[in-house]
Design a protein that fits this description.
single chain; about 110 residues; mainly alpha; DNA polymerase, domain 1
Length: about 110
């Protein structure tokens, strides 16, 4: 996407996920699952995970693989992506996370 294509749209960055000093559930899940190695693909993996969960709160393993397939990981061969997809992140204190979920938090983690 070119910057001009985002004109007038809301753009979320991985840095913008923290709310009031509290990690977003996806960030917490990545941390918990040790999904932060070199950091090359981490922002894309986190934001892709959030987008997937916004549309599908209970993705299958194949749906997780497909959603993350557009991100290149230089470290791990994606094992933690699939494993973390079966785990749940924790919702924000006093809330259900920022993806409009049902209070269960987010479900994806990442191994890079």
């Amino acid at each position: 996407m070119l910057a001009v294509q985002a004109d007038g749209q809301q753009v979320t960055t991985v840095e913008g996920l923290v709310a009031g000093g509290v990690l977003h559930p996806i960030q917490a899940a990545f941390k918990e699952e040790h999904g932060l190695q070199c950091g090359f693909c981490t922002p894309g993996m986190m934001l892709t995970s959030i987008a997937l969960l916004k549309d599908n709160q209970d993705p299958s393993d194949d749906e997780i693989r497909w959603a993350l397939s557009g991100n290149i990981c230089r470290c791990t061969g994606y094992m933690k992506h699939r494993q973390g997809g079966q785990e749940r992140g924790r919702p924000h204190e006093g809330g259900s996370g920022s993806t409009g979920g049902d209070g269960r938090g987010e479900e994806l983690s990442h191994g890079c």
